[in-house]
Amino acid sequence: MNFRVIFRIYVSAALLAFCFAGSQARADDLPLYFPTEKPEPISKQAFASPYFAALLEEFAKQVEKRGDASCLRSKALDGKAIQERARRILVRHGEEMIRLMQTNIDERLFRQYGGAETLGEIQRLEKNPAFTEFVKLARIGQIQTIVDWVVTSFNHFVVVNGYDWQGFSGVETGNPALLKFYDEPADRMDKLLNDNASLHSYSDLREKLRKETKAALHASVADRPSHTFFKGAEKEVAELCLVKK
User: Fold this and answer.
1) Which residue ranges make up each domain of the chain?
2) Alpha-carbon distance 131 to 151, whole Å?
3) Are 123 and 205 in contact (CB under 8 A)?
4) Would you state the pLDDT for residue 11?
5) What's the distance, CA 59 to chain centroid?
6) Distance from C-alpha of 36 to C-alpha of 107, rounded to nearest angstrom
7) pTM, entire model
8) 3: Cβ–Cβ under 8 A, 6 or more apart, which residues?
9) What is the pLDDT of residues 159-214, one digit of tens each?
10) Tell me: the pLDDT tens digits for 75-94?
11) Which residues are paired to 163 by β-bridges?
């Protein structure tokens, strides 16, 4: 099992909404990993992560490259100032996205599709000390996938609003400094799988749980066009001095 490939597949699915402006954020694309968790701890982890901090730096580079230079000077928007504005936009709308994802899982359907049973088995296995490192690494990768879901939805919003814009996630830019945030834990997970065959069943259960959660997600979130999660951010985006096509 190659976790580099797996994480890239999930992120690339989310990127389809950015590449094709008319597409919708389908349930297949959503990072449905924590069906019974409260949204607040997930948001806290996501937006305090080193990956998110690195993405803000990449965001600032994109704005400085593509924004109107005279506008940026007049507003005194340097790298740090751009990062702070980006943080406000992404965190405010991202927290709401995560809240909607976590609070629109139908508990009855979740049980009906076997999610509760699968989750119980996962939690039982996670008590095994031999699984501790793998669980921690999987959490890192999955939190980063949530960050990419927020970021690619924002990118879609910017493009739909007519700006000259390129995405700024690791997969979109191919930036090795960003891709390492996925690749390093993924390589360690693969090594652990090679060393401990019992981890394969645990990994399969996690993917089974994701699918069962997807089946129980309310259509109002699962079928929502990705750019609409950032409705209301038009003025803030305009203040970034981006150029219309």
Assistant:
1) 3-238
2) 30
3) no
4) 53
5) 15
6) 9
7) 0.88
8) 141, 185, 186, 187, 189, 190
9) 999 999 988 887 778 888 998 998 898 899 999 989 998 899 998 999 899 999 98
10) 999 999 999 999 999 999 99
11) 244
